[in-house]
Amino acid sequence: MSKRIKIIAGIIGVAAAIFGLLAYYQSQGILKIFPSREDRRIEQILTIDRSKFGKPEGLPDEKFEEEIAKLADLKKQIEQKPDDPTLWFAFAFTKDFLNDHEGSVAAWEKSFELQPLDFRTPVNMANVYQYFLKDYKKAEFYYREGLKLKADYTIAYQGLADLYRFNWKEKQNLFEPLMEEAIQKDPANKASYLVGLIEYFVRGGDLTRGQALFNELKTLDPKEASELKTDYPQLQ
């Protein structure tokens, strides 16, 4: 082996040893030199791509630009405080407002990892999955995650009601037991759940069950019952 080849081999060997040593130190948390998978994930979530934004209807151009500037400012704050769930939540909310829905759920997922007891976050993700991304399986999962944290969370029941009654036709049979669950666990909003059930039965041709629940609604909330009768005069 020539002297030159030996020198090159030695340099390569030293470089490999240094690389291995640095990688070991990073794995032990002593140094941070190479980007980790999580680093790359965060970088991707924080990407601001104007091509994915859509100006909300009626929003002035000036306000639209202000929201984009706010998003950029939130990104800078997160880079300084990457473990602050409130910053991630605000970043996600702003992305959602700008109609970058895939970007918003990615940011909310990070916020939820950092603050797993915040019942609002999974329900926000569920709403995006249901109404914009049309991923009903994920929508159902995250609504249920929200209800695990807050069993009387009205917004989660309303979202699941829309999912089962109007959007996920294969699971429409779950609407009735869902409303029964909601009445039991969120009794403060019983009247609104009764209205949903009454409409469901009347439109489905089961006037007998609809009338029975309507009688209950008349006692519970006469005003709501009167308004419902305007839409469904067959109710007595």
Topology:
Elements: H1 3-27, H2 37-45, H3 61-80, H4 85-97, H5 101-114, H6 120-131, H7 136-149, H8 154-167, H9 175-185, H10 190-203, H11 207-220, H12 222-231
What does the model show?
Among the domains are: 1-34; 186-236. The protein is elongated and about 100 Å long. The chain is mostly helical. Helix 7 packs antiparallel against helix 8. Helix content is 72%, strand content 0%. It has helices at 3-27, 37-45, 61-80, 85-97, 101-114, 120-131, 136-149, 154-167, 175-185, 190-203, 207-220, 222-231. Pfam families: TPR_8. InterPro entries: TPR-like_helical_dom_sf, TPR_rpt.
Task: Give the structural class.
Answer: mainly alpha
Biggest sheet architecture: none
Beta-strand content: under 5%
Count every helix, treating DSSP H or I runs of 4 or more residues as helices: 12
Order of helices and strands: HHHHHHHHHHHH
Low-confidence stretches: none
What oligomeric arrangement do these chains adopt? single chain
* Rg (CA only): 27 Å
Shape: elongated
Report the count of strand segments.
0
Summarize the structure.
By secondary structure, the chain is mostly helical.
List keywords for this structure.
elongated; 236 residues; mainly alpha
